[in-house]
Amino acid sequence: MAVLTPTRPDAPTPVAASGRACVVAFWVVAVTVPLAFLGVFFAWPVAVMIAKGFVVDGQLDLGGFADVFSRPRTWRIIGLTLAQATLGTVLSVLLGVPGAYVLYRHSFRGRSLVRAFVTVPFVLPTVVVGVAFRSLLVEGGPLGFLHLDGTFAAIVAALVFFNYAVVVRAVGGLWERLDPRAEQAARALGASPWRAFRTVTLPALTPAIASAASLAFLFCATAFGTVLVLGGLRFGTIETEIWIQTTQFLDLRAAAVLSVVQLVVVAGTLIVAGRARSRRERALGLTLPAASVRPLRRRRPAGMPPGDGHALTLVATAVTAGVVLLLALPLVNLVVRSLRTADGWGVDHYIALGTTEGGLTVTVWQATLNSLRVALDATVLALVVGGLVALVVSRRPRRTVGRRAVAGLDALFMLPLGVSAVTVGFGFLLSMHHPLGLPVDLRTSPLLVPIAQAVVAVPLVVRVVLPVLRAIDPRLREAAATLGAAPGRVLRTVDLSIAARSLGLAVGFAFAASLGEFGATSFLARPDRPTLPVVIFRLIGRPGPESYGMALAASVVLAVLTAGIVAACERLRAPGAGGEW
């Protein structure tokens, strides 16, 4: 007689056990692949580059620190880096907060267009920004009478031009979702508009402002192409000094010491940015959903005392309008100057882009096609790696150890934004000959340039996708699991489907970053296959108005390509999937 043994209702079935195994395998791959990518193509080249400066005859020699820090030039460069980063950050915040208020708390015709326009400078290649400001400030330019060409003030202005959008988008994204009833209650109790803003709204915005300021400081301190074009050898940053020491003086010890200094500055900035970002996310958890917050209207709420409530709005609007005009000035002037020829006006410089005048090895159009191909490969790599990182970092482990591990992984993948691209590029040349003992020389591979560009683009993908994933209500996952969905299906139907909303913007930022990358590419691009930023820099360095005119025209081409791609990708994103930038 057969005996039937009852089974426990909660006992896992073979199918469920197989599904859990697949999910565990997926998470292992999601962690391992990005770490392997970062280790091989970032940590290893940087370590090799730094080791070249600190290892002499097989022995560790840290005497380079004393040697480099005893040079007055080193302290001058560090001082210039901190000064321009601090001043650029302060001005970006002071101008960006009013812009965030106007563009994210008020509704007016053309607001989306203005929002898109103020983002354009951030996605422009740094070389283009430098050329645009140079054409504006040189003798004979619209602002040439100010005699600011090659000055510290010109560099700071270009950095503010580049980072204004960082503050506007970061602060505006939180301001748009703040519950306006707290400020309205303060006004109803008799507080003036300024006091209500200072005591209620500003404290709520502090996490976003701190996060934006940290990022702006990071971008200002590590600026390369813009400072190199505008400052030359007179003004520089640690980043440009690493390039000078490596390419002109062949002093790898000084470059290694400066790379360590920059790494320390970047690590400190990332710690501040990470803490500010976590506070910002907690603040977002206390705000109303974006759809429930209506733009401010001119009608005064009932019970609110009369006053100069519109004064702050008028001031913010005037400041924002002035900044938008100033943002447009370098771009418009770049286009105008590219059409000026020795005989008047015309498209001669654009016609010359199809030739190899100016000592080029390829035409500008060939370099453009090469840049597009490289950027496409880099974007695919960045989306895969950055998407996996964002998915892992978006988890909220219950244990403290798990939370710290997730925060550490997030900070680890932000490092490529701050570590010198010159260090990475030169490190590639030193380490990719039989990397890790493998019988292959990657220095001759056409994949080397897109890999280097993907290293820089991965943090941008993470910063765009991660806030979208972290905004997912955990109850959605719980509801899907309650309805019988396996863990793998929950991941696919909830997390991945919602993350796809930010895919368009992630593609745009990654493609733009790859298209305009110059630091590492200047070392890795082969002479017969240069990218467009490399060609522009070569044209700037050649004497003669023809070469300079071609550089202006090529910069317009690169600016239009970059801005057009980002604008098209941003239109493809779903509403509410804005990401952090």
From TrEMBL:
Q: How does the record say this protein sits in the membrane?
A: Multi-pass membrane protein
Question: Which SUPFAM superfamilies does this one have?
Answer: MetI-like
Instruction: Tell me the PROSITE patterns matching this sequence.
Output: ABC_TM1 (PS50928)
Keywords noted in UniProt: Cell inner membrane, Cell membrane, Membrane, Transmembrane, Transmembrane helix, Transport
Report which superkingdom the organism of origin falls in: Bacteria
The Gene Ontology biological process annotation of the record reads: transmembrane transport
Alphabetical GO CC annotations of the entry are: plasma membrane
Q: Which compartments does it reside in?
A: Cell inner membrane; Cell membrane
Major place of localization? Answer: membrane
TM regions (residue ranges): 21-44, 77-104, 116-138, 150-171, 204-232, 252-273, 309-332, 374-393, 405-430, 450-469, 502-525, 548-569
What the entry lists under InterPro entries is as follows: MetI-like, MetI-like_sf
Q: Where is the ABC transmembrane type-1 domain?
A: 78-271, 368-569
Identify its protein family. Belongs to the binding-protein-dependent transport system permease family.
Q: What is this protein called?
A: Iron ABC transporter permease
Q: Which organism is it from?
A: Cellulomonas xylanilytica
